[in-house]
């Protein structure tokens, strides 16, 4: 943010604090927390803002976690921001009490429905069926039976009337856009909501009370005294809603606020985003050369309408009530806009072969240089000069002149009068399209060309299957379209897969790009980590010639001898954007892509599919769903006589990933949790599971074992581990020689799997989802067993790579076990490190090999040992060193058994990537 120094109107403070009589005691103002009295309300506001014991505002999330491993996060509150100007104002839920039927809800919270049971039926019908299906349901004899209470609504229209009687959020509008002088095939209608109303609705939502920040921890220019910054984040994308026929498209625009923590905003299920408009996609009857320009101009005009009041608030501020009912003086700058490349170019008003955020043009896209930012004011000055010579509505002439200046021909960008808005800043780097889609469209194709489709597919098919990761059983070469998640799953293993068959410099170029993508997804950054990310991109440019030399970059007419790829140029801007916007993973388009499904495609299936009205029908469907979701929580709280304010709770030492609505109900009415829908929280095994000696790792095994009270010889035959009984005997003797004879024949309980759970490397307070480690005996599908690999830490020794062959514990039957034997153990087979990452700078991975010893009969036998479960530190992934050709006889069930040399995969997941680079590299 820059130059946030808007003057405050002279009557703002007086206007904001005129209703504080509720807090007066005689001529005193009392603190609602500590009851300290103050003569002037300004003194009370200062006390509430500054006193850490009474300040209801949570510590900014950025200050609650280190910037990186072993690094302190330094920050400070802005001394003149985030002031409180009023108390006990109605938040979003409290405002629902002002509804027309509030008097009826004093007696029946669920009015106009007869009660909770009827409301739940109505909510189910309205969320899952269209009107025709609801009508057929209500006509069923089972529903109309006199033996049960019939619903008060008898028809679908009546049910819809009931739903429309519930308190609603910001209302939808329909505005006809006039296109004077240009004919369209259909009328142009903008379906929209006032973006400022939506912002206030989100800002005051008590669901997010524990996940919002109101005071910037760092800012470079002065804010208006007492102001609260409410940063606006927008997203939009165009999507088809019909398959194969009809050619119907929708172009929604979504809004959220950056006050809400990024990890909450990044989840569609948290409902932190709201749709503010469905942009028209006019079909102009004109020369197709400038039809797209007219569409872009209509889009910018619509954004002017939707965001008009938001832009005014960014300039002069407006009163806003936060989730705790505190009145604040809010400013609404546009800080980020998430969009794919074509939409970014439309927003910044540049031509197709031009960067939307820098001054680079197509011929410069592949040189790896960081060009000057495309400043918004510079674009406006160029457009103004151009408009002085050519009438912008002489479209063809104006467009030709604009293209010569690398502009699109849009003459009135929507951001031109949005204070502080600069496309070079607010067009945030976007990971889904710029990184993951770029990987699929380019990097994967290069690998196909070099490795060959059959060899590539064989290597993907033969990888060991791990729980929680995608296995490509049919290969990847035949797939023409994938989801972002599938792009990520291919990225995980692409580097070790191409090693051995591709030129080392080619492998290094690909690995450098994958390194860059992983580093760009970090949730926190330091100057060092930004420089490290940049060096990975520079490394790619240093070795990219190997891709051209291998003729891997190809078009329809043959090899391409350049890297003029628009998305490749965008990668150079990441390092400049991070200090301005923070971590860029919070602006990924994954959330907007998900909302295209929930806000467009799914509701479209419940419409009549008529071109003229389907958008209005979608809006009605979504409006009722949003109303139902909000009213459901509101009615639950009121029916249980609970506060509509979600009071801030004390910070815990560790947290799990939890939906904010479910977290609220879990605290105030846990018995009601089962009736609410939403993602369940990550199970925290640190509370009741087994803990490692340093309490950094938690483990979970089921109460019931998979094999109970079995003898060691039986298990040796079942698991095909002939040395197990002897290893067990030796282990017991090493633990307690005096008790060895008592316990070496003890029966054993065996489990086929266990779970391991860690804290996040970069967000240490966050408990990560647990990972399952398998140790299944040989079977028909897995002739040599299905066993995963782990990392062990044995006292002061270096970390050890091992494969878990058996999970067991001594049976409780018999004399009590001594503490050193009363725990869970693993039988593992060991690997040794034969090469470190710096030994192969192309792949940059540890290389490990199975350890063997010579057996009594002269054969080579794998080295095994028994260890406590608590010595495991991480679940890891090993990828075979395939060489120049993969063995066609090996599949995923025998991959870990047939090969002896493996890569320790850096890229198995983002957390492991950062752990490995921090602790081991």
Could you explain how this protein is built, in words?
There is one protein chain. The protein has 921 residues and is α+β, with helices and mostly antiparallel strands. 35% of the residues lie in helices and 16% in strands. It has 31 helices and 35 strands. The strands form 9 sheets. Strands 20, 21, 26, 27, 28, 29, 32, 33, 34 and 35 form a 10-stranded antiparallel beta sheet that branches. Mean pLDDT is 87; it is low at 1-27 and 55-76.
Lay out the secondary structure:
Layout: H1 12-16, E1 24-25, E2 28-30, E3 37-38, H2 41-50, H3 102-105, H4 116-128, H5 131-138, H6 141-144, H7 156-164, E4 173-176, E5 189-192, H8 195-203, E6 227-229, E7 232-236, E8 239-240, E9 249-250, E10 252-257, H9 262-265, E11 274-278, H10 288-316, E12 318-321, E13 327-331, E14 334-338, H11 341-348, H12 376-389, H13 395-404, H14 423-426, H15 431-451, H16 453-461, H17 484-498, H18 504-520, H19 527-543, H20 545-549, E15 554-555, E16 558-559, H21 566-571, H22 574-581, H23 590-604, H24 614-639, E17 655-656, H25 660-668, H26 685-688, E18 690-691, E19 697-700, E20 707-710, H27 712-718, H28 724-735, H29 740-743, E21 748-751, E22 753-758, E23 766-767, E24 771-776, E25 786-787, E26 789-792, E27 800-810, E28 824-835, E29 846-850, E30 852-854, E31 860-862, E32 864-868, E33 872-876, E34 878-880, H30 895-898, E35 901-904, H31 910-919
Parallel strand pairs: 6-13, 7-14, 17-23
Antiparallel strand pairs: 1-2, 2-3, 4-5, 5-11, 7-10, 8-9, 10-11, 12-13, 15-16, 18-19, 19-22, 20-21, 21-27, 22-24, 24-25, 26-27, 26-33, 27-28, 28-29, 28-32, 29-35, 30-31, 34-35
Helix pairs in contact: 4-24, 15-16, 15-17, 15-18, 17-18, 18-19, 23-24
